[in-house]
């Protein structure tokens, strides 16, 4: 669904390495949308003072120090959701009904926050549009 190209920007041949990787990927006859959506990550930016990526849409990270990793995670999540046609939603459910069980079968449940005072829960899920349509028709409230 997604290619993440991590580069060591401190390597003296980093530009040549990028060109080689792109050439290999093109020779694999991958779909052009997969190549176009590739996430480029510039790693080891902690070793270069005031590093700013010169390439458009490149993310600067330091895996060693954790710099930029949250932004990388968000970008990967966004691109995967786009590529798979899924979305992240939070739905309110009644715990006495079958909704939670249905969501565990038909979606990816990420978080369940139970409100014991009224027997409900807020459920954060990753779900396809078609599955969410089925959910709404089965559980209109």
UniProtKB/TrEMBL annotation:
GO molecular function (one): GTP binding
Taxonomic superkingdom: Eukaryota
GO cellular component: cytoplasm
Domain annotation Hflx-type G: ranges: 1-84
Protein name: GTPB6 protein
